Structures are given as structure tokens and as C-alpha cells.
Automatic annotation (TrEMBL):
This is Methyltransferase type 11 domain-containing protein. It comes from the Eukaryota. The lineage of its organism: Eukaryota, Metazoa, Chordata, Craniata, Vertebrata. Pfam families: Methyltransf_11 (PF08241). Residues 47-138 form the Methyltransferase type domain.
Amino acid sequence: MAVQMFRKMPFSLVYQKYMLPVSTEVFNTVLSYVKDKTNGRPLDMALDVGCGTGRYTVPLAPHFKKVLGIDISESQINVAKQNTLERNVSYMVAPAEKLPINNDSVDLVNASLAAHWFPVDEFVNEAVRVLKKNGCLAAHAFYPANEIEYKNLSHDLNEVMSKVWDTLFQHVEPSNLTREVDHMLSQYQDIYEAIPLKDKKWITDIRVKIPMSVPDIIGYIQSVCMFQMFLQKDVTGAEEFLIQTEKRFRDILGEEADSALLNVYSKHYCVLACKH
């Protein structure tokens, strides 16, 4: 299974370092929704499901009395613990389809870049079970493609990035990532439809800009699960792919290759729901 990639410590470290940073736009959307639905009451507990290395868990800490991050990967949890100083944040190894939480006890169930990995019906039913009255569910991720903007070189840079995703998609096989990729390509429409709550909303096409250097982009490619599958099947081919991709970027940028910060755009989406 593709999720086994996340159990490996080398990948967990790459994921923590290079995966796209927390989207302020999406995070603020989630937080505003929760505060609106809870009428501004003090927020006791947030549960971050599929928390990975804690990249979206830690930002929740100032807004809740306590935050619990859970993930099935012990290596991801270990990295999260190493990178968390907040005393009100804790972590646990546990699956999304069997949350180790009491009924009606959570203000927010959050799933960042993770819900597409879950058995969706089981997860959303568990989320509803643990939410308090007026508690909220948030699931968000980004579309598996990127747009690059830099001076008059955007077209050529985008051709390279498009080739990257085309190559990564070649390593999606029916036995592993097809369902997960379908969730991402639909911008979580199917996850939205699976939520058994009447009060829900689906927000798509949230455009987020991230300044990135060429090494940042190469690291980001390595943090994508599809690349890790490529690497597992063909180490030499995957490493050569990275070398050639970096060379293409550098050839386009010329003398600016070491100093340029490229505007890399990702398209995020968010599903929100409230339990009444």
C-alpha cells in the first residue's frame, strides 16, 4: 500500500522539510469557520487526524486548550514530537477509522493533506461521533499540479513542472494510488458528499503562492508520495529524473538559477462541516 511510504523515517524527514508549507489562507478559513459555528466560545480540543509530522497540528495550539495529533505512521509521529515545543500538543499512533476519542468531546476534527488516504465513510462517521454539538470537521489538501511564475520565463518553467507531474502520475497504479488521486483530482467532492451532516460547505480553487528556490522545488518533488513510489521501483531512474529536472530549471534560469525565488502556485480546496 502507498501509505506504507509514510512509515519510513527517511521519507518522514523529507516530508517534514520539503512538503509545501502550511497554507495561511486555508488555515484561516478553517479557524474562522470553527469560531463562527461555536459562537466564539472557548475552544477546548482539536483533533488533527493523519497529522503526519505535525505541520498543521502545531498551528492549532494557540487556539485550543489542547491539541491531539494522530497518525498511523510511528516515524511521522516521532518526527512530529521532535519538532513540537508546545505543551498543549500531544501525539498518538492511531488510525483515522477508529479514533481513540470519546463521543461528543472535540471542537474540531482536522485532516490536512490526509483525508484522501482514509477509508472515507469510516472516517467521516468517526469524526461525527467524536464532535461536540456545533463542533466542526475540516478536510483540506491541494491539487496535484503547480504553476510557476517568474519574469518572462514562466512558460518554459511550467513546461518542466508539467513534465514532472506527468512523470509522477506514471507511477500511479490501480493497486495503490488510483482512489487517492481521484479524491485529489475531484478537489474532495466525493469526500464532501460522503459527510452525513446537513450543514457543510465545499470550497475549491484556493490559489496559494509560495516563493521557492530551485532546491526547494526539487525537495518538494521528493516529498510527494508518487516520487517515493518511483524511487522504490527504480532508484537509478528516480535519481536521474531529479538530476535532469534540476538541470532543466537551471538551464532556463541561467545565471539566476542560484538566486531566483520562483512564485510557485498551488490550488487548495477545503471541505467544512458542522454537527448540530
